[in-house]
Amino acid sequence: MIALKPLPRRITYVLTFETLAILLSTALLAALSGASLHSNLPVAIAASVAAVVWNFIYNTLFERWESRSGIASRTVEIRVLHAVGFEGGLVLILIPLFMWWYAVGPLTALAMEAALLVFFLVFTFVFTWVFDLLVARID
Q1: 88 pLDDT exceeds 90?
Q2: Through-space distance between the first and last CA atoms of the chain, rounded to whole angstroms
Q3: Is residue 35 part of a domain?
Q4: Structural domain tally of the chain?
Q5: Backbone angles phi and psi of 71, in degrees to 5
Q6: pTM for the complete prediction?
Q7: What kind and span of H or E run contains 3?
Q8: Residue 101 lies in a domain
Q9: Taking CA 98 as the corner, what is the angle to CA 82 and CA 96, rounded to the nearest 5 degrees?
Q10: What is 17-79 written as a DSSP string?
Q11: Residue 119: domain span
């Protein structure tokens, strides 16, 4: 086990998460599209960049909304709203990307996005669990 201060730990988390996510989602997209790993790598990278940028923008806007609304803590309902809003925005970003890259219709692109959503739900849970076991936080 290694131990890191909060900022280096977060940076290590994001870099490791995104690297593995790109590699694994490239394989998933290749399986879904029937194309080679090589031809799916650019769209996996684009989707990863879009997710990171959207995450930063969305969380900034969401926290501003919470502050202006006088929301002091995140209830289950607020957390559900946060998650649905984030994923909804990501769907709106990625479906056109998939339609363009793979030359498919909106339903096929939506199915691809749904597969990625399920994959990332499981991947995020497992990755975070393993990361927390391997990388302790020094306060």
Answers
A1: yes
A2: 16
A3: no
A4: 1
A5: -80, 115
A6: 0.85
A7: strand 2-4
A8: yes
A9: 65
A10: HHHHHHHHHHHHHHHHH---HHHHHHHHHHHHHHHHHHHHHHHHHHHHHHHHHT--S--HHHH
A11: 42-130
Query: pLDDT per residue over 21-73, tens digit each?
Result: 999 999 999 999 999 999 999 999 999 999 999 999 999 999 999 999 998 88
| Residue 132, helix vs strand vs coil | helix
Whether 124 is covered by a domain: the verdict is yes
Residue 32 belongs to a domain: no
**CA 42 to the chain's CA centroid:** 16
Count of Cβ atoms closer than 10 Å to residue 51 Cβ: 21
| Cα distances (Å, whole numbers) of residue 14 to 1, 20, 72, 87, 100 | 18, 10, 27, 18, 27
Q: What type of residue is 83?
A: A
Distances (CA, A) of 5 to 22, 61, 66: 26, 27, 28
As a whole number of angstroms, the distance between CA 24 and CA 20 comes to: 6
- Count Cβ neighbours within 10 Å for each residue of 27-37 and write b for 16 or more, e otherwise: ebbbebbeeee
d(CA 137, CA 121): 24
